[in-house]
Specification:
Blueprint lengths: L20 E6 L5 H7 L3 E4 L12 H9 L5 E4 L10 H16 L4 E4 L10 H10 L4 E4 L9 H8 L5 E6 L6 H14 L1 H6 E3 L8 H6 L4 E4 L16 H19 L1
Parallel strand pairs: 1-2, 1-8, 2-3, 3-4, 4-5, 5-6, 6-7
Length: about 250
């Protein structure tokens, strides 16, 4: 596969000294020590649930942010799907404001309309109230009707600096080839991709060679492999940190 070179710090790119961003999903302040010690660049806080989880409480956001000096992004999502209603939108805007006031660095959100197109109206309604906020578009993009059209739309949204995607609604096991091809063909997409959705170590080299410089893990760094038991483990986080850095360095040669 072709290695695509990308600028070391394009506008809106993640500000990390290593040249690649390791994001770790967490459930609360109890995970912070292991994730921070292991070398993560950014945390994502959510109440565990389907496809990236649901919004936590503002109190949990506040206690988590107080426990770390790493940037924390918070999931903005109130139901198991990626659609929303007018009444829910009001709650979303209020929650987003509370999250940022509680110390969050940014948000993770993404919405689809009834036709499975990116719901730009909902995104705009949230962003209008939060000018300048940095945010990640969620894996809603993998549920869109047409991937090319979804990517064209997402790229126009203000403030988005990452897009969580597996290339398939069924995860990276099924979507890796499509995601790698899309990233290799378009450096701007490669810059935005935050590879997520069952990421395994053997997939990292392919993603990096395609220009991807952001990856996300969650249950992969928990000894139990699930949200039910144990906390994030520093040694497991470190193994992903070392792998990612080694592959980025190899791609530079």
């Amino acid at each position: 596969m072709t290695i695509v070179s990308t600028p070391s710090q394009a506008p809106g790119a993640p500000e990390v000294s290593r040249g690649a961003l390791l994001e770790v999903g967490i459930a609360g302040p109890q995970d912070v020590a292991g994730v921070q010690e292991g070398g993560a660049d950014r945390l994502v806080l959510a109440t565990p649930g389907p496809e990236g989880g649901l919004s936590p409480t503002p109190q949990l956001v506040q206690s988590t942010c107080a426990a770390t000096d790493l940037p924390v992004r918070v999931v903005l999502r109130l139901n198991d799907g990626f659609s929303t209603t007018g009444g829910e939108l009001t709650r979303l805007v209020g929650l987003a404001t509370d999250f940022l006031d509680s110390g969050a660095e940014g948000l993770v959100m993404g919405f689809l309309d009834r036709d499975l197109e990116i719901d730009t109206e909902v995104c705009a309604a949230v962003l209008e109230r939060l000018p300048g906020v940095r945010w990640t578009f969620s894996r809603a993009i993998d549920q869109g009707l047409d991937a090319r059209r979804s990517w064209r739309t997402v790229r126009t949204l203000p403030g988005v600096d990452a897009v969580r995607t597996a290339g398939s609604v069924r995860g990276l096991e099924h979507g890796l080839d499509a995601l790698v091809a899309r990233a290799a063909a378009d450096p701007e997409i490669a810059r935005l991709v935050l590879a997520s959705g069952g990421l395994t170590p053997d997939q990292v080299p392919w993603l990096v060679r395609a220009g991807v410089r952001q990856v996300r893990v969650s249950t992969q760094v928990r000894p139990s492999g699930s949200w039910d038991k144990a906390y994030a483990d520093a040694a497991l986080v470190r193994s992903w940190r070392l792998l990612l850095d080694a592959e980025v360095e190899a791609a530079r040669r």
